[in-house]
Specification:
18 helices, 10% strand, DNA polymerase, domain 1, three-stranded antiparallel beta sheet
């Protein structure tokens, strides 16, 4: 057990008598290369940890305010001795690393760089950063608590964010924090985000994104009316059920025309580092194949299959596609994103009797994901298939006109 530290900072009255200033006061030694200071502020004072790293010192505010005006609870309000333990934990951890521990904001920066290095979308990181307060961004990952993260999760709902958006934001947060924990052995509190960011239902928001076939046709027609190139992009999304990132990476060579036309659809970049990118054949209608063939006439095989009006490739990470689709949806009086076309394609395939393994392969997902997200529709599909083998025993057996012939005939 760490020795009991004696310091004037342990006294609330002594701390409140200190002058207000940006520079921390005192810095009481807690061990070799570790000190705890106190920053007196007009609005919100703070405990400050200082640790030697071989080249100097780094400092960081501890999460949880000093118990200047409230009773300490060990989480949000810390007395001097609780702050000492938290400072030692942050400065050394179990691995003895003396580098400054990553804050939540730094973890997001590292996550964004990792996404870019493996071809992922940095939007996942930028979206997350926009929903975090400066206090949480500055909090070291090793000191995040389940209570603080749960409060943030609940605040996202209270702010009016849609459940699907909350779920995507939390998924990005978990990915960033998991990456930080892999890179720093001092981060051992992964249970904080497993508990604090859990408990979000998956199915209800997905179901709300599913639209009927008439609406799908109306969305495609509306996209063509807005712009022919945009209409062709939406037509592919509706017909194939792929993600916008996959459609944007299609090349002219991926169009295989003929009596049974298809697209060689590139796999998504989901699934983490090291996933092999492949192209799978996905059937399309003859009508869509003809439209695509006319659109790519005279273009090289390595050119983008789907282009913007100026001839450049679509950027799935920009807001252009979102804005254009929102215009089409608004004209139809519905609140949907382009992702509704993917969900509707999956459900349409399930209801049509396509085996779940085939549906998963065509839509670049897994049967586990299908069962988790579309369990209600899979159950309906199973019920439909099972009824084909039922026999109605209440229906009388029809008479059979069989005449027995005499012997020898």
């Amino acid at each position: 057990m760490a020795r009991k530290v004696k310091s004037s900072l342990a006294s609330r009255s002594a701390r409140l008598a200190l002058p207000i200033r940006r520079k921390p006061h005192v810095f009481t030694a807690l061990g070799r290369g570790i000190g705890l200071g106190y920053r007196r502020s007009q609005s919100c004072s703070a405990w400050v940890v200082r640790a030697a790293n071989g080249h100097g010192y780094w400092t960081a505010n501890l999460p949880g305010v000093p118990d200047d005006h409230d009773y300490a609870d060990g989480v949000n309000v810390l007395d001097f001795f609780q702050a000492c333990e938290r400072a030692r934990e942050l400065a050394r951890g179990k691995g003895g690393d003396t580098a400054k521990p990553a804050s939540f904001g730094a973890a997001i920066d590292r996550y964004e760089a990792d996404l870019k290095s493996r071809g992922g979308s940095p939007v996942n990181a930028t979206r997350l950063r926009g929903h975090l307060s400066q206090t949480l961004l500055d909090t070291p990952v090793a000191l995040l608590t389940a209570a603080a993260l749960r409060d943030w999760r609940d605040h996202l709902f209270a702010s009016g964010l849609k459940p699907a958006s909350v779920r995507r934001t939390l998924a990005s947060a978990k990915a960033a924090l998991n990456l930080a924990a892999k890179l720093d052995p001092r981060i051992t509190n992964d249970k904080a985000w497993k508990v604090g960011l859990s408990g979000i239902a998956q199915s209800h928001a997905t179901v709300s994104r599913i639209v009927d076939d008439a609406t799908v046709r109306a969305l495609v027609a509306g996209a063509y009316a807005l712009d022919p190139q945009f209409g062709l992009f939406i037509d592919v999304l509706a017909s194939v059920g792929c993600r916008t990132s996959q459609a944007a990476r299609l090349l002219v060579a991926d169009l295989q025309n003929g009596s049974a036309p298809r697209l060689m659809l590139p796999s998504s970049r989901k699934g983490g580092k090291g996933r092999t990118s492949i192209r799978r054949p996905v059937p399309i209608t003859l009508a869509l194949a003809r439209k695509l063939e006319r659109a790519v006439a005279g273009r090289p095989s390595d050119a983008p299959l789907l282009t913007r009006p100026d001839g450049s490739a679509w950027n799935p990470n920009s807001m252009e596609l979102v804005r254009l689709f929102a215009q089409v949806a608004e004209r139809l009086g519905i609140e949907q994103t382009a992702y509704c076309l993917r969900h509707s394609s999956i459900v349409r395939s399930l209801i049509a009797g396509t085996p779940t393994r085939v549906v998963a392969a065509l839509h670049d997902t897994s049967t586990v994901q299908l069962e988790r997200v579309y369990s209600a529709f899979i159950a309906d599909h199973a019920d439909t298939v099972a009824r084909r083998g039922l026999i109605d025993t209440s229906t009388p057996t029809p008479a059979v006109n069989v005449v027995t012939l005499p012997a020898g005939r």
